[in-house]
Hints:
Blueprint: E1 10-11, H1 17-24, H2 28-34, E2 36-40, H3 42-51, E3 54-60, E4 74-77, H4 79-82, E5 94-99, H5 105-112, E6 119-123, H6 128-140, E7 145-149, H7 158-164, E8 173-176, H8 179-189, E9 192-196, E10 202-203, E11 213-217, H9 226-231, E12 234-237, H10 249-257
Amino acid sequence: MKQFEPRVSKIISRDNKLYRDCLKLSQKKYRDEFGAMLVEGENLVSEAAASGKAMLILYDEKVKLPEEYRNIPSVAVKTSLFTKLTDTKNDQGIVCVVERPKKEKKHFFGVAGSAGANILILDRLQDPGNAGTLVRTAEAAGYAGIITVKGTVDLFSPKVVRAAAGSILRVPVYEAEDADEVREITTMMRKRLVATVPQGGIMLNEADLSEDVCLIVGNEGNGISQQLLAAADLKVMIPMKGEVESLNAAVAAAVIMYRSI
């Protein structure tokens, strides 16, 4: 992408166009417009390089760029400017512009819609830490993709990307407009919509969730929307002891997702 091709070996001015465009990637509308996102830190930059999606590396002028990244376009950045590119207090001096996964429904079907594959649905989840943890857990549990319902935190925002620890570079994501589109997609894929409920469902250990499942994780405060609850093909309850009424969204989903392994 020519937009992120370095024209200089070092950025020393905040008016540099490349620098300004990279700063814009902190906002969702520009991540969508440019089809790119920023990842930071040695581990995520290494993951991006391994994925083949790394477009540009920017590094603090005080840092020596590792040899392993010499084949990726790179540019040094004045320290006072570099800190503006990071989302952490103690940055590691390196960030990477990465090609964002494709958003098209057809592409998502192609990589995540195969027979037997399981999919995670995030219904207006708001906490970046929860969302990133769920992306990471979904990959670990063998889930083939993730569908987000409008109102869910952007999975390509810096905080979510960090919590996902590289999984966001590998797990396909599709952003659905509403519950109706979710139902349309799951029907086309011949998947079962599965919702967790506090009562009125079957116990988790009695449910077959090994394949062709679309597991819904609801909003932290309000839970799963009434529309998706009504559309669910199966409702399950997680057995709990003591006086605990519910589990954290990411924990509950992890318990259920690992039923498929």
